[in-house]
């Protein structure tokens, strides 16, 4: 994550970061503005995170449809997932990757 204490690499990634920041109007930004008491040091995060303690259970669940007089029951598979993620990792992103849903 960009910030005032992040050391950008001395390779093509430096240019990539500079172009992205410039595209957002942050080319000359130092991420520290003393008069506003603003300080964004930035940090490094892993590109990939692996869920820990992953377990799952596939079940059949019954769902009822329709009015009470003409009610029909449909069985459908349901999947329950349990897993742990490190801090700053988000379960919604993990689930999106598992389900391959477009955002």
TrEMBL record:
Q: Which domain of life is it from?
A: Eukaryota
Q: SUPFAM superfamilies, alphabetically?
A: Pseudouridine synthase
**Under what name is this protein listed?**
Pseudouridylate synthase 7 -like protein
**Organism this protein belongs to:** Ameca splendens
Q: What is the lineage of its organism?
A: Eukaryota, Metazoa, Chordata, Craniata, Vertebrata
């Amino acid at each position: 994550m960009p910030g005032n204490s992040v050391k950008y690499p001395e390779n093509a990634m430096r240019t990539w970061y500079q172009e992205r920041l410039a595209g957002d109007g942050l080319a000359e930004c130092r991420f520290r503005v003393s008069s506003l008491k603003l300080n964004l040091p930035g940090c490094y995060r892993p590109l990939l995170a692996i869920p820990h303690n992953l377990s799952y259970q596939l079940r059949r669940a019954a769902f009822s449809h329709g009015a009470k007089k003409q009610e029909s029951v449909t069985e459908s598979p349901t999947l329950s997932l349990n897993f742990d993620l490190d801090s700053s990792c988000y379960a919604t992103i993990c689930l999106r990757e598992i389900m391959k849903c477009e955002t």
